[in-house]
């Protein structure tokens, strides 16, 4: 294939030829790591239970609107920038809270701007990358990289929550059998359990203490956490509130189910660890080889950066690389 026409192509043509594959690669990476791991069947069940209480969604929205004022910056200019640049700031606030980060959108925008400028400057002045590639990397650093880091932090926090949540339910069961109401049992579990599980349970009790109903506080937390195990807990309490019954026995059975789910996840993780290790090794090889050749034979590697044909090859390589990551990620992803 004759690519000599790229040497005389204008900046607009080069931008189009390089931007489309790289943008496709970024979108594929985002699609590969997007999602909260929650199955469609679970979503339908949660929505059915939520539909049984028609005022719950309205009450949750009211609570969110009251708390919305605490997430913006104190400066009017920053608030205007937030409203102009973020079409759905509520979703971003929930993602920040899910990751255990204070939902300060002004600070988040500053981090995004710094990340984009740092990546642009590193690629421009550190490696001498062409302006078009620098701009694309800067956009990725400002938009994609912070979301990627938030996703990793949220996933780790969800794992920590699940690890201690079964023990928290056991503490609630003991409190209920000792004669404590469910709110006091949640408070006791929140004080005894470390990590995100204790923090969220304490937050639920504090919401109930200031007048929010337990059902609304639970559904608000479920909407924020996006954890199937906590959804099961919320559904169990919602059904028991409407139908009655032995809540301690219901939560005890739920604790057993959650422990079995955790054991199954560990088995799946062990079975897929070899495929994940292979994916990590294969995925890191192109970057390791690039940096090795960059220091061993700089002129040979820099042709990919300074020659428009090399830029096109790198863009296509990133697109195929992202497609491979997406395929391997979905191959080792199992929903329990």
How would you summarize the topology of this molecule?
Blueprint: H1 11-33, H2 40-51, H3 54-67, H4 76-85, H5 89-98, H6 105-126, H7 131-177, H8 182-192, H9 195-209, H10 214-225, H11 228-243, H12 247-296, H13 298-306, H14 308-331
Helix pairs in contact: 1-7, 1-14, 2-11, 3-10, 5-7, 6-7, 7-8, 7-9, 7-12, 8-9, 9-10, 10-11, 11-12, 12-13, 12-14, 13-14
Q: List the helices and strands in order.
A: HHHHHHHHHHHHHH
Q: What is the tally of beta strands?
A: 0
Strand content: under 5%
Tally of helical segments: 14
The end-to-end distance, rounded to whole angstroms, is: 47 Å
Q: Residue ranges: pLDDT <50 for 5 or more in a row?
A: 1-12, 28-39, 52-71
Instruction: Give me the Rg, rounded.
Output: 25 Å
Instruction: Report helical residue fraction.
Output: over 70%
Alpha-beta content class? mainly alpha
Shape, principal axes of CA atoms: elongated
Main beta sheet: none
What does this protein look like?
The protein is 82% helix and 0% strand. It has helices at residues 11-33, 40-51, 54-67, 76-85, 89-98, 105-126, 131-177, 182-192, 195-209, 214-225, 228-243, 247-296, 298-306, 308-331. The chain is elongated, with a radius of gyration of 25 Å. The two termini are 47 Å apart. 24% of the residues are buried.
């Amino acid at each position: 294939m004759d690519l000599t026409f790229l040497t005389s192509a204008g900046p607009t043509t080069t931008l189009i030829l390089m931007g489309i594959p790289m943008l496709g690669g970024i979108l594929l990476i985002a699609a590969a790591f997007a999602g909260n791991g929650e199955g469609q069947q679970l979503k339908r069940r949660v929505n059915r239970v939520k539909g049984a209480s028609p005022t719950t969604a309205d009450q949750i929205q009211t609570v969110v609107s009251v708390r919305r004022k605490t997430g913006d910056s104190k400066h009017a200019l920053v608030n205007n920038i937030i409203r102009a640049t973020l079409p759905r700031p509520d979703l971003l606030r929930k993602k920040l809270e899910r990751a255990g980060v204070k939902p300060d959108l002004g600070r988040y925008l500053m981090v995004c701007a710094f990340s984009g400028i740092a990546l642009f400057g590193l690629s421009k002045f550190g490696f001498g990358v062409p302006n078009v590639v620098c701009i694309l990397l800067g956009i990725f650093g400002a938009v994609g990289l912070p979301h990627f880091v938030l996703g990793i932090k949220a996933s780790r926090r969800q794992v920590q929550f699940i690890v201690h949540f079964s023990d928290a339910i056991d503490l609630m069961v003991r409190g209920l059998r000792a004669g404590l109401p469910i709110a006091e049992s949640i408070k006791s579990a929140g004080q005894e359990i470390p990590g995100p599980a204790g923090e969220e349970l304490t937050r639920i009790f504090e919401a109930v203490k200031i007048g929010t109903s337990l059902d609304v506080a639970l559904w608000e937390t479920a909407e924020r956490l996006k954890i199937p195990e906590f959804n099961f807990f919320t559904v169990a309490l919602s059904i028991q509130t409407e139908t009655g019954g032995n809540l301690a026995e219901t939560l005890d059975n739920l604790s057993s189910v959650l422990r079995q789910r955790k054991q199954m996840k560990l088995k799946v993780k062990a079975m897929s660890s070899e495929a994940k290790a292979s994916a990590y090794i294969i995925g890191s090889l192109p970057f390791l080889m690039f940096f090795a050749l960059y220091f061993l034979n700089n002129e040979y590697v820099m042709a990919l950066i300074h020659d428009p044909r090399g830029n096109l090859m790198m863009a296509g390589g990133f697109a195929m690389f992202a497609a491979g990551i997406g395929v391997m990620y979905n191959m080792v992803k199992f929903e329990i």
